[in-house]
Amino acid sequence: MIKPIVRDAFFLNQRSEEATKADLPVVQDLEDTLKANRERCVGMAANMIGYRKRIIIAATGFADIVMINPVITAKSGEYETEEGCLSLPGVRKTKRYNQITVRYLDRKFTEHTQTFSGYIAQIIQHECDHLEGILI
Q1: Would you call 39 a catalytic residue per the annotation?
Q2: pTM
Q3: Which of 17, 82, 111, 127 is catalytic?
Q4: pLDDT digits over 37-71, tens only?
Q5: What's the CA dihedral at 53, 57, 58, 62 to 10 degrees?
């Protein structure tokens, strides 16, 4: 289901809770909402659509990747950039890393550890910040 984008900073500044298998319907809502906003959005966190659960989705260019309970375990190549967010007006400066390693569960709750770099790594970092209640 396509959900409205949350813009309430108080809600967005709260840390998200671990997701469980009972939260799998949130994955479909994230996929539907990202698809509906694809022209202006490359990733989303569950709190952006009203769920304080640790679930994100990132557009990789060839497919969307869903991460449940993602944890960035390594990062390198710090740089400064500017980002926008559907939940906030305008763009803001932020610090990111060119390469990250992420441990996460897929929709079948199978654990993965994967390394990402470049723009995809930036998207994942932005969405993981949302899970921590960090807004750019």
Answers
A1: no
A2: 0.95
A3: 127
A4: 999 999 999 999 999 999 999 998 889 999 999 99
A5: 170
